[in-house]
Write a structure and sequence with these properties.
By secondary structure, this protein is mainly alpha-helical. It has two domains: 38 residues, no CATH class; 178 residues, Multidrug efflux transporter AcrB transmembrane domain (Multidrug efflux transporter AcrB transmembrane fold), CATH 1.20.1640. 64% of the residues lie in helices and 4% in strands. It has ten helices and four strands; from the N terminus they run αββββααααααααα. Strands 1-2 form a two-stranded antiparallel sheet. β1 and β2 form a beta hairpin. α3 runs parallel beside α6, α6 packs antiparallel against α8 and α7 packs antiparallel against α10. The model has no long low-confidence stretch (mean pLDDT 81).
């Protein structure tokens, strides 16, 4: 029921409103109820058919997961919830937990796809795993750059790490391709007569072909570095995606120049030994 405005302009006017009783008599509303004003919540929220209240917290740059772990411990020690009440941690933390559950599936599936694509390209398990060696080495640069930039682990950072795995495979395949081309050419020409010749083929495939490999890495870096200094809407997320990729590509490039040739030499040397070639 809603009275006309002239009957509810003031508490006194509302008290004088005439109400009919079941017996047929008419009495003012003030004789049936106590009218008073009180301050209450502007909105009543419910979840799961129960009243709910929100407490908003600014974590001031701390990792969300670390803050929630500390807060849960303190609340468990100092707060005793009444019967019928429950406490949940929501907001960005809840979204982070959902993202972690998805990443537990996305990351292995992504690595599996990368491995399969490398195997279909090389048709060799050894070459596939040599290329994949770039992944742990690239994580060194990714972690260090995240540390220097004071970035916490987040969903955006994990997206950058997943993309980094693909970039590692790309640059690793380029290096291995040049090593294989040089080795195959020397072998067809009959120039592999000893360990020194094997070393010469590897030097030709690695050191003398540094320009195309460097161009590949620079193209990736020049495309990502501007994102590190971007500003505006969404720049915070994009910087955290680009940071692990920039740091990881730099260290994986050093790995490919210094470690790949040595691993390739050991691999081909053992192959030659099993075949009984002189260079073994």
């Amino acid at each position: 029921m809603r009275y006309a405005r002239e009957f509810r302009d003031s508490p006194e006017a509302l008290k004088r409103v005439i109400v009919s009783t079941p017996a047929g008599s008419q009495v003012p509303l003030s004789q049936l109820a106590e009218l008073r004003f009180s301050t209450g919540p502007p909105m009543i929220r419910t979840e799961d058919a129960k009243l709910v209240g929100f407490v908003f917290v600014d974590i001031a740059g701390r990792p969300i997961a670390d803050f929630v772990d500390d807060a849960r411990r303190v609340v468990a020690e100092k707060v005793e919830l009444p019967t019928g009440m429950r406490l949940e941690w929501a907001g960005q933390f809840k979204y982070l937990e959902r993202a972690k559950e998805r990443l537990k599936v996305v990351v292995p599936v992504t690595l599996l796809i990368v491995i399969l694509l490398l195997y279909f390209n090389t048709h060799s398990l050894v070459e596939t795993f040599i290329v994949l060696l770039a992944v742990p080495f690239s994580l060194i640069g990714a972690v260090w750059l995240l540390y220097f930039l004071d970035y916490n682990m987040s969903v955006a950072v994990w997206v950058g790490i997943i993309a980094l795995a693909g970039l590692d495979a790309e640059t690793g395949v380029v290096m291995l391709l040049y090593l294989q081309l040089a080795y195959g050419r020397w072998r067809r020409e009959g120039r592999l007569r000893g360990a020194a010749d094997l070393e010469g083929a590897i030097v030709e495939g690695a050191a003398q072909r540094i320009r195309p490999k460097l161009m590949t890495v620079l193209c990736i870096l020049l495309g990502l570095v501007p994102i590190m200094w971007s500003s505006g809407t969404g720049s915070d997320v994009m910087r955290r995606i680009a940071a692990p990729m920039v740091g990881g590509v730099a260290t994986s490039f050093l790995l490919e120049l210094m470690i790949y040739p040595a691993i390739f030499a050991v691999w081909k040397g053992r192959e030659a030994g099993r075949e009984g070639a002189p260079q073994a």
